[in-house]
Amino acid sequence: MLSHLRVLDLTDGGAALAGQMLSDLGADVVLVEPPGGVPSRGLAPFCDDVPGPERSLEFFSVHRGKRSIVLDFGAPADRTRFADLVARADVVFDDGRQGRSARAGFDADALARLRPELVHVSITPFGGIGPKSDWAATDLTVTASSMAMWLTGDRDRAPLACSVPQAFLHAGAEAACGALVALAERRRSGLGQHVDVSAQTAMMIATQSTLLAHGWNDAELHREAGGVRVAGRRLRFVYPCRDGYANLTFLFGQPIGLAVARFFEWMHEEGCCEASLQDEDWVGYGARLLGGHVPEADHEAAMQAIERFMRTKTKAELLAAAFERRLLVVPLSDGLDLHGSRQLAERGFWQPLRHPALDRNVVHPGPFAKLGRKPIRYRRPPPRLGEHADEIAAEARVAPPPAAARTAAAGAPLEGLEVLDFSWVYAGPAVTRVLADYGATVIRVESSTAPDALRAGQPFKDGKAGWERSANYANVNAGKRNVGLNLRVPEAREVALRLVDWADVVVENFSPRAMKAFGLDYETLRARKPGIIMLSSCLCGQTGPERELAGYGTMGAALAGFGYLTGWPDRPPAAPFMAYTDYVSPRFALAALLAAIDHRERTGEGQLIDCAQ
After folding, report:
1. DSSP class of residue 454?
2. Of 12, 90, 582, 598, which one is the catalytic site residue?
3. CA–CA separation, 154 vs 116, rounded Å?
4. Which of 165, 202, 271, 384 has the fewest CB atoms within 10 Å, i.e. is most exposed?
């Protein structure tokens, strides 16, 4: 979709995910390496445990699909070559004020003078301005500064980060989206701009709005391994089972409490809990718990009963029951689980790429989204050092493209884009919040018969629960309009279809059966409006044997391996705070959506975007 774009990438580590995402979406991304290569080429683990600059898994993980050229910015000839590359580029990613380009005199102002149409994206620990802009930092210290660590780990031990560094991966994905928003603005004005990405700010999304507690005058949450602590009470999600660990979303209200009730019904059927637990009002349980009306001993006894029952089941048995009984329970996947996953296999996620330096295929993670019109296809393995120097030099001998026409277009980058948002809770609304931020008109469909579950999520204004008092809900829905439609009523469906006629984009994040049941699935909408773009974001995607699994990012984090990777080695997995894949997946969904919008503006083609957490 983005094959018309040329990107220069001067980053490495997690920040390099930005260039890889644009490469996945079709852009030509040139990795500009220093003599000896970027540092990740020297980082373990290595293929076959043999060190070498072409064998690093760290390098493979963020540089797939790019071309490589080596430039020494201390050499005048290479500085001239870089200036020539900039004159032909649409986007430059660098690592900020102290990055290689800035140290060589190519700061933001210099790059803008070289090419006014350039979108220049800087990725730094704390942003390009402010008292911490020049601070040294690591992924760990940035994660600590985001509050995400404060919320992760065991209450009686020091806070934890995920075993796989995350902060600069969040920043890289944020940078990819920022570049695409800036390119949308360039289509209006013909001008580029400088995009300043703070890894600290990007990582703060992993607190799921709980960092707003003080500002909203509510009590802050505290870490609780394998769950969360609310009003002094533990809510436990992670439990041992016969062959590992599993995650049960032990929360309440509509509709989660109904799934919890079904879990206790199953327990009672097998003689593993008292009738009082089966008969408990799990929908209203949360309000009573917050109000201090549930004795702590009774609450702990319920979770102990869950643990005893879980220990009798395998991970496979629990996952099968999730489908058969509509439960919010999934296994905590480890690496072998993921590599052997039938769901990932059927969706073509594991992709063999021929690696010339190794002279064999190496398996890589596959497309982050399935695109109906322009599928992601991997064209290249991670590049060998300087592999493409000759072909890039030949391209530089061709005259640079003419400057884009400039207009006095006013307004926000996405002004005029009209979005119909059926999504709820977090992952889908987080995507449409960004669209609204940058000028799109977003109409959100909700129903008083089934209000968004996030309205019941802390923190609350002044600590008082209420449908209109949740900071969590407000944070991902600011800037939108709201219409109440019960889609089970035929007249409401007709209103929804008239809104489809109005919209450019439709967003939903239910399991595949939901929109089909409403008569609002992609095939129906495409027949009515061929140019419609529909983003579907759910746990496991629209295809595969596990496509019907409904649930939340707590379950997505478990399925994706994050639960297993976070914790102390002498204790059960702690898992990241709350719904971790709800914070990761929106960046990928948004990047795919912005690329699809760019593609439609040039071709008139709409498409379905199937993005699985």
Report:
1. G
2. 582
3. 51
4. 271
CA angle at 511 for the pair 509 and 512, rounded to the nearest 5°: 105
Q: H or E element: which one contains 100? A: helix 100-103
Partners of residue 338 on adjacent β-strands: none
Is 78 catalytic? The answer is no
Query: CB within 8 A of 71, min separation 6: which ones?
Result: 32, 33, 34, 78, 79, 81, 82
Degrees, nearest 5: CA angle 550-554-556: 60
Q: Which ranges constitute the DSSP H helices of 483-577?
A: 490-502, 512-517, 522-528, 553-559, 562-565
3-state DSSP assignment of residue 453 = helix
How distant is the alpha carbon of residue 85 from its chain centre? 31
Encoded tokens for 278: 């089966």
Separation CA 607–CA 534 (nearest Å): 6
User: How far apart, in whole angstroms, are the C-alpha atoms of residue 155 and residue 563?
Assistant: 17
3-state helix/strand/coil string of 136-177: CCCHHHHHHHCCCCCCCCCCCCCCCCCCCCCHHHHHHHHHHH
Q: Is residue 89 within 8 Å of 414, Cβ to Cβ?
A: no
Per-10-residue mean pLDDT of the chain, 613 residues long, equals: 97 97 98 96 94 94 96 95 96 82 87 96 95 94 96 95 95 98 96 97 96 93 88 90 96 90 97 94 90 92 97 97 96 94 94 86 91 90 95 85 69 96 96 98 94 90 93 97 95 97 96 91 96 96 94 94 94 94 97 98 96 95
The dihedral of CA 556, 559, 565, 568: what is its sign? Answer: positive
